[in-house]
Specification:
The protein has 306 residues and is an alpha/beta fold. The chain is 33% helix and 21% strand. The strands form 2 sheets. It has a 7-stranded mixed β-sheet with strand order 9-6-2-3-4-13-12. Strands 1, 5, 7, 8, 10 and 11 form a 6-stranded mixed β-sheet that branches. The mean pLDDT is 92. Belongs to the cytochrome c oxidase subunit 2 family. It is found in: Cell membrane.
Length: 306
């Protein structure tokens, strides 16, 4: 299984299209930049002191053809890029669901139903909830090859930004707000789901593998997770305490290392986390994950209607 640490080696059509847009944008921009990079040293060399072949024109101040060339070229480039990239923005909208029409237009295949994943940013770890599958994971996200991942994202602490460069672009998250991101993998591979928004001393640890695996491996991973300890509101209150995955294991008395998996006792956990910040009143420091005064026993999640 390939390990992808950057966006230049994608294994999903969304990230591949974004890479193509970047390459072409860079190439087109070079039409205006390269003449400057090449011409500047040539002009300095030609008009060097002692070069009697260079014409000295102290009264020269304007040339219509030169002005058209200098301003017309970049203007046409900006217009072309504006039209082209505007179309790309709509085509690669992170809120747009990956469906058969998109697959046909971008020449890839969908082999199964979408996988719903709810992502919660914490200090300093990612919680991935699979409400339809009845499981959750901390420190690792797994998706099946060929099936779209439809993600809802929020944070239960400060503002964060989720990015899995081998599969999709980045999207911001804020407490009380839900954003969306879509991705799909065409082949097995692993990229890094990272927080690109600095959020404190544990920021470097907030990196979770995002693995795309064959459907049979995904099914086995789900079966193993369903036998894990339950994640309910009380367990989540402990999990939400500041710290990396290793500290979460210690706080929850789960020996071992690596990612944590849970069976999901509360399918509305994500909505309850969002609702914490939608009650129309400030969240007390003792009830705010990430706060130095945070206390799990003082941080109940509100109930939400089904």
């Amino acid at each position: 299984m390939a390990q992808v640490d950057g966006f230049l080696v994608p294994f999903g059509p969304v990230a591949e299209a974004q890479r193509t847009e970047l390459i072409w944008t860079t190439a087109i921009t070079m039409i205006a930049i390269l003449p400057v990079l090449v011409g500047t040293p040539l002009i300095l060399w030609w008009f060097r002191r002692g070069n009697t072949k260079a014409t000295y024109r102290p009264q020269w101040h304007f040339d219509t053809k030169l002005e058209i060339l200098m301003w017309g070229g970049p203007t046409l480039i900006i217009i072309a890029l504006s039209i082209w990239l505007t179309q790309a923005v709509f085509r690669l909208d992170p809120y747009r669901e990956i469906d058969a029409e998109m697959a046909q237009g971008m020449n890839f295949e969908i082999t199964g139903a979408p996988v719903a994943i709810e992502v919660v940013g914490l200090d300093w770890k990612w919680l991935f909830i699979y409400p339809e599958e009845g499981i959750a994971s901390v420190g690792e996200m797994v998706i099946p090859v060929g099936r779209p991942a439809t993600m809802r994202l929020t944070t239960d602490t400060v503002m964060q930004s989720f990015m899995a460069p081998g599969l999709a672009g980045q999207i911001y998250t804020m407490a009380g707000m839900v954003t969306r991101l879509q991705m799909i993998a065409e082949r097995p591979g692993t990229t890094v789901g990272e927080n690109t928004q600095y959020n404190g001393t544990g920021f470097p640890a907030q990196r979770a593998p995002v693995r795309a695996v064959p459907p049979e491996d995904y099914a086995r991973w789900l079966d193993n997770a369903r036998d894990a300890p339950a994640l309910d509101a009380e367990t989540y209150a402990v999990l939400a305490h500041s710290g990396d995955v290793a500290k979460a294991r210690e706080d929850l008395d789960r020996p071992g290392d690596g990612p944590l998996v849970f069976s999901l006792a509360d399918p509305r956990l994500f909505d309850r986390i969002v609702a914490r910040y939608r009650r129309g009143e400030p969240v007390e420091p003792e009830a705010q994950p990430g706060s130095p005064l945070y206390r799990p026993d003082r941080a109940p999640l509100p109930e939400v209607s089904r």
